[in-house]
């Protein structure tokens, strides 16, 4: 399954990119989701992150690795992939990109995931899409 979220913000890409850190991750977390970050090494290839996520006091481990990153004039990006995922996720790949636009920047969240069992994919999509859509407002508040 794929989720694509585009979030325009008024700042230039260089300034937005500098804000991609643990503090931003915590701000982007929707209120219904609990997040406890244990490790956040950064946005370069090889950087790890480890957190516990959940709701209603039930937390599961989520470990990932930044597998790719790069920049070109006016754009910055990195990809994180799940290493250990909370049930029911089987795979997770998340491209974070910031690209220059006429009015500042556009932040892209491009997510590919799959669940085990497969029939949960559309249900999890219906849960995740609104959670990531909230990022539009939270990015605007942050940038």
SSE blueprint:
Blueprint: E1 2-9, H1 13-18, H2 22-28, E2 34-40, E3 48-55, E4 58-72, E5 75-84, E6 89-101, E7 104-115, H3 121-133, H4 135-142
Task: Describe, in plain words, how this protein is organized in 3D.
The structure is a single chain. This protein is an alpha+beta fold and 143 residues long. It has one domain (2-142): START domain (Alpha-D-Glucose-1,6-Bisphosphate, Chain A, domain 4, 2-Layer Sandwich), CATH 3.30.530.20. Helices cover 24% and strands 51% of the residues. The chain has a seven-stranded antiparallel β-sheet with strand order 1-7-6-5-4-3-2. It is globular and about 40 Å long. The relative contact order is 0.24.
Features:
7 strands; 4 helices; alpha+beta; single chain; 143 residues; Alpha-D-Glucose-1,6-Bisphosphate, Chain A, domain 4
